[in-house]
Amino acid sequence: MADTGTHIEAAVETALGKLDLDAKTRLLAGQDMWSLPALPEIGLASLVMSDGPIGVRGVRWTADDPSVALPSPTALAATWDPGLARRAGVLLAQEARRKGVHVLLAPTVNLHRSPLGGRHFEAYSEDPYLTGRIGSGYVTGVQEGGVATTVKHFVANDAETDRFTVNNLVGERALRELYLAPFEAIVENARPWGIMTAYNTVNGTTMTEHHHLVNGILRGEWGFDGFNVSDWMAARDTVGALRGGLDVAMPGPGTVYGESLAQAVRDGRLDEPEVDEAVRRVLRLAARVGALADVEPAVPAPPAPVHGEALARELARRSFVLVRNERAALPLRPGRTVALIGAAARDARVLGGGSATVFPAHVVSPLDGLAAALPEGALSYAVGADPTTELAVADRGFTLRAVCRDAAGTVIGTGSAPSGQIQWTGTDLPDGVTHDSLHSVELTGTFTPRASGRHSFGIKGAGAFTLTVAGTTYFDDAQQPADVSDPFEAFFGSPVPRAETELTAGEPVDVSLTYVVRLPDGIPLKVVAFALAHQEPPRDPDALIAEAVEAARAADTAVVVVATTDRVESEGFDRADLRLPGRQDDLVRAVAAANPDTVVVVNSGSPVELPWREDVAAVLLSWFPGQEGGAALADVLTGAHEPGGRLPTTWGSLADAPVTRVAPSDGELPYEEGVFIGYRAWEKEGRTPAYVFGHGLGYTDWTYDSVETDGTTVAVRLRNTGDRAGREVVQVYLAPTEPDAGRPARWLAGFAGVEAGPGKSAEAVVTLPRRAFEIWDEAAHRWFFVKGSYEIQVGRSLADRRITATINV
Ligand code: BGC
């Protein structure tokens, strides 16, 4: 399907032949934040791109333009089901088509190298093989829907600290066996139509100019024939980027391509045929996605429609990982009363922050989900602890609109503002408003508090602001965020508190925040970005815990939802530690002491420390579960469905984690650990994490009866010995029989999911890829098949190995 038809190649050549140098170079440069210019002379529509990866935001950064929000990529990987990833992809293509998007800026297939990586929720796993399988399923699905993907961020963008400048020093072997491996597998299995080159530098060359990795390996060795787009603002040099294989510089209008590229050809610094190569790849993309008139696209008719809500719910429950379940605490026995506790149980954290943000039309919180699933009177709720340590974008209780004025103060347009956040990225200014005429934006409306007490209001962004609440002006000055090293600071930075006032629950007050528009310094981007922020009156943390303990005591079961916040896990910065923010650890301990039947639901995109884990009955990891997360949680807690997830990444404490460093020194971050990251490193160091890679319990039991293998295919017979139907992820690890210090003790070589009813048998058939036996020979610069004796270890996780076979290859 993803193959380039000869008709496409012919159409590309014809179209190219009709373009002059200026048109060609214009096509390679963003015309705004999200699109390339149309070239009507060749019937080329404007190619539109959008993030990615859990939904399709579209070209507008606003809740006015909602999208289905699927669970976080870590959750998708926890399903260990490439087929499910493929179905997610088909849905996302449907969403993209609905929004006029041709290119989805996803998936993210960087690896979980250090648990401190702030953006891990957006990547899949610490394991390159699992990442490659899930990523292949995802790309296949999106492209089956006729929409392009850009597999990102090529390569070694595994942390956020100094991401624009960091020089990651990665050995050839680690690059090949770990960081390049998912990209290679996806190129081979799913033929992606695009790739995104990263901000960072690898071994001295910035990725948007990396001739060796892009032209040499990706295109040369692997045969990638798609287009290469820069990460946003990553392209720095016209000649370097074009020679380094970069086809498209985003965003625009100011880029290193366009006029600068035409000039470089005219000056003789580049040759036009070099430009043609890049243009060909963009035209091929256009033809594939149906943006080139009179050319049949790669997918002539879209696949059957997918029901987004149902898929979001199925995916979430299939991703939840039950890591502990003592005394069969779960599923909840019918008739039991439940005390639901936690701020995130009511105000659910369903997705991770940054460019991955989408705006779902609705969110089912755990409180909504359980209230719908349990009988009347069976559920109580207490906040317990509020992990938010700072103001958040004004949302609940606010009714706002955006009023745009010119320099004379005349209203020139009005826009809707579903939340207190304005992110107008160029094309989405309100009707009648242009960047030239726009002088100020006022967010104005009312706020109706849900609690009485001292409310805080604040401002996010850089520039001159005036903040007025209930008739009093609290701030009328300029503010500048402390850290402006990341040009997207206005998107990711912290709000600054500017006003505190006593308000009464249910009594509306007027609020107004005026911003004098200042386009970002040093960035050729037309982005109007700022936000009104708010925080509820603080409550005494001890009183909140005491209230939760009372609720837990009065109920049969306590379900505590603990969570990270968007100041802990987001694009744009790394984590300082792995602790749950605020008093949440104290809360769990207190509730567990009051009720032995305490179930903890962990709402985070990547690992957090769970120091109380042995003191509670059950622990369920729910990731960032997407818009239907609360409904899926009810499905799993009540036992309507079993939790289907297995850990795609080791969960352990920061003190024990073998690889943690994310901060460069003198601009360099050496990947000193070589091929030993994730479980490979934990095993090498002989350390035991809280929960191992691959771990996850269902609601039934399995016995592994037999394994047969010829060294290529592994056939495993297993039996469901429990009393309900279930699904098992059969994991196959390969371990050299003679330990070899240069190689991990074992590594994931294959897996397969099987289903069986109670008492029934099932067979899992896993094919071992040749690559599982190979290492990269740094001296000879080639793959080397390591002959010898291997144990094939089959089981439920890295540590729970049930049955083995030895082979000689
Ligand atoms: C992110 C990319 C994203 C792009 C566009 C960048 O900051 O690193 O993943 O696709 O912005 O939003």
TrEMBL record:
UniProt-listed Gene3D superfamilies: Galactose-binding domain-like, Glycoside hydrolase family 3 C-terminal domain, Glycoside hydrolase, family 3, N-terminal domain, Immunoglobulins
The keyword Hydrolase belongs to this UniProt entry's keyword annotation: yes
Occurrences of domain PA14 (ranges): 393-549
Keyword presence, Cytoplasm: no
InterPro entries in alphabetical order: Cellulose_deg_GH3, Fn3-like, GH, Glyco_hydro_3_C, Glyco_hydro_3_C_sf, Glyco_hydro_3_N, Glyco_hydro_3_N_sf, Ig-like_fold
Highest taxon, organism lineage: Bacteria
Keywords: Hydrolase
An annotated Gene Ontology molecular function: hydrolase activity
Family statement: Belongs to the glycosyl hydrolase 3 family.
Protein name per UniProt: Glycoside hydrolase family 3 C-terminal domain-containing protein
